[in-house]
Specification:
The chain is of the alpha+beta class. It has six helices and six strands; from the N terminus they run αβββαβαααββα.
Length: 179
């Protein structure tokens, strides 16, 4: 009888653990300089994740993202830029070219990550989590264009997505930051 109870308990524990959703903090990405960046180091901070491109009509949002970072960065906000070439090849550069462009043109100081794919068959695992309800447990939110924004809370939970054309100073983002 004891072994049956133990077996049932182990089965329940395994079932519970295997059903848990991944968290933002479970991922490690690469910086644009090629270093590992465990997202667990952002525990306790709100994170704005943005897929970026340097040859897009929305590219001037870099200036707004930097301004937002200048205002809120000291108050536990991190912005992560993920260059991606998925939309009309608007990010054709190498990591080094992208970093030089961001720093020289927009004086970007928030962390830039290595160029990845944010849609399609070669989508980066982090973006699979960001865009698929089956992964994030909240909502399907496919990336529709460059500069789509994802809001992640201090505990690594998916909160919302903000459409590419909306300003980094949109009401949704500011309300999230102020609460």
């Amino acid at each position: 009888m004891r072994s049956i109870l133990l077996g049932c308990m182990l089965f329940l524990v395994f079932t519970f653990l295997s059903g848990q959703q991944k968290n933002f903090h479970d991922f490690t990405v690469q910086t644009i300089e090629g270093k590992d960046f465990p997202l667990a180091q952002l525990k306790g901070k709100k994170v704005l994740v943005v897929n970026v491109a340097s040859k897009c009509g929305l590219t001037p949002q870099y200036e707004q993202l930097q301004a937002l970072y200048d205002i809120y960065g000291a108050n536990n906000l991190e912005i992560l830029g993920f260059p991606a070439n998925n939309f009309r090849e608007q990010e054709p550069g190498t990591n080094q070219e992208i970093l030089a462009f961001c720093r020289n043109t927009y004086d970007v100081s928030f962390p830039m990550m290595s160029k990845i794919s944010v849609s399609g068959e070669d989508m980066h695992p982090l973006y699979q989590w960001l865009t698929q309800k089956s992964e994030n447990g909240k909502e399907d939110a496919p990336v529709t264009w460059n500069f789509q924004k994802f809001l992640i809370d201090e505990n690594g939970n998916w909160v919302a997505t903000v459409e590419p054309g909306e300003s980094p100073f949109s009401e949704v983002i500011l309300n999230w930051l102020d609460n």
